[in-house]
Amino acid sequence: MGFSQRRLAGDIVTASYISLLESGQRSPTLDLVLHLSEVLQMPLEELTGRDRSSAASTEPGGLDLVIARSAARGAAELGDHARAAELLAAAYTTAVERGTTALQLDLGLALQEELRSAGRQPDRLALLERLADQEWAKTDPHLRVVLFTELATAQRDTGRLADARKSAYTALGDIGPAKLTGAFEHVRLLGILISVLCELNDLGQVELLLKEMLSLAEGHRPPVRGRAHWVSSIAYSQLGMATAARHHLDLARAQLTTPDTPVRDWLRFMRSAGNVLLDDGDPGAALPWLQAAEQVGPMVNAPDETTRIVALRARYELAVGAAAQVVEVYPRLSEGSAPLTGPDLVRANLIQAEALADLGRTEEAQALLRRTAALCDELTAYELAVRVWKRIDTLRS
Q: What is the DSSP string of 118-171?
């Protein structure tokens, strides 16, 4: 048809990735398939080689669902993720009733993203578990990579860390069969696995995984490289390698400071930067990131992010010796409209316990730490639980 690889790639992937697709060394993502269908003016069935009569592409009366999908996208662009989720949930239910597999998948994946943005993590997890359990999702390695990657993030975000680790390794095992080795999906999955291992304090393989992720990311566009450096900054901080953490933080900032970075992602990066710098014992450097997050937070309709910003503020106040301020804001973290859960709650509890100890309220601090150790056990974060018990012993002596 006379299309160059650069034109086919558009803003979705690189020209070299198109070359790998043409040689059969990569499989296209759903977004790329839709993009190529539009550029080539070719029906999806013809482009993917699937017959309309197949179970995966028969979509009777699907136009109304496509319209609902478009309306949801518009609501999301306006920041109304609750409305977007409502529209997609209704469309997804209809697709399930009609038995339209392709639309179930497309709408389900779109819905889980809006549920995440709306802070409805338990609902997102339940949806992804249903999708991953479908028969048509069990035989296609590419689908398994997509679904188990998202499932790992949902399990991580709801505190099911052992399950998240298992799902991430399941997805990783399908990377080769799906012909996604070195692709964006591979880089992202390694980042998710690294984050889960860090949450579990299971750090034995983290350095090797970091090197692999960073090596693969070098062949990608700046947003992918930026996110790889972002994950690296957090992981190296967890490993106690402050110089490496700050180095990757600087690289991530350089790659992500573009108009293409979504505001919510930039907000999350600002929080991460503040935490990395506090890990390094530098509250002065962390303060501008905290203040910027507090300014940007109201622009993002995300109560869970607002609570995490308050948690960062509490951590900063503890670092500068203002323990009374920590105790004052703690109820907003544990009992507010969007209370912290899972690993986020563990971290907040540790901050509150240190503040109570600094104020001489050691019995309250010990009681909170005991509850936190029990929470660590629920999360299967056993190494972290041991650290919490050691701190309790210190307060007793």
A: TT-HHHHHHHHHHHHTSGGGTS-HHHHHHHHHHHHHHHHHTT-HHHHHHHHHHH
From the list 288, 222, 213, 275, the residue with the least C-alpha distance to 252 is 222
CB-based contacts of 371: which residues, under 8 Å, 6+ apart?
A: 349
Task: Report the interhelical angle of 206-217 vs 184-199 (nearest 10°).
Answer: 160
- By CB atoms closer than 10 A (0-12, 13-18, 19+), residue 124 is buried
**Would residue 281 count as lying in a domain?**
no
Count of structural domains, the chain? 3
Question: What is the SS3 assignment for 326?
Answer: helix
What letter would DSSP give residue 219? T
Query: In angstroms, how far is CA 218 from the centroid of its own chain?
Result: 21
Report the CATH number that the domain containing residue 32 is assigned in CATH. Answer: 1.10.260.40
Burial class (CB in 10 A: 0-12, 13-18, 19+), 208: exposed
386 within domain boundaries: no
Asked if the model's pLDDT at residue 336 lies above 80, the reply is no
pLDDT of residue 71: 85
- Please give the C-alpha separations between residue 120 and each of 83, 112, 271, 272, in angstroms, as whole numbers: 13, 9, 20, 22
Distance CA 174, CA 153 (A): 17
User: What is the rounded distance in angstroms from the CA atom of residue 376 to the CA atom of residue 317?
Assistant: 24
Residue 114: exposure state from Cβ atoms within 10 A (0-12, 13-18, ≥19): buried
* pLDDT exceeds 80 at position 393: yes
Q: E strands of 8-64, at which residues? A: none
148 lies in the same domain as 188: yes
Task: Look up the domain containing 230 and give its range.
Answer: 134-256
Q: What is the pTM of this model?
A: 0.80
Q: For residue 165, which amino acid is it?
A: R
45 and 75 belong to one structural domain: no
Rounded to whole angstroms, the Cα distance separating 73 from 64 reads: 14
Compute how many other C-beta atoms are within 10 angstroms of the C-beta atom of residue 152.
28
Do 104 and 141 have their domain in common?
A: no
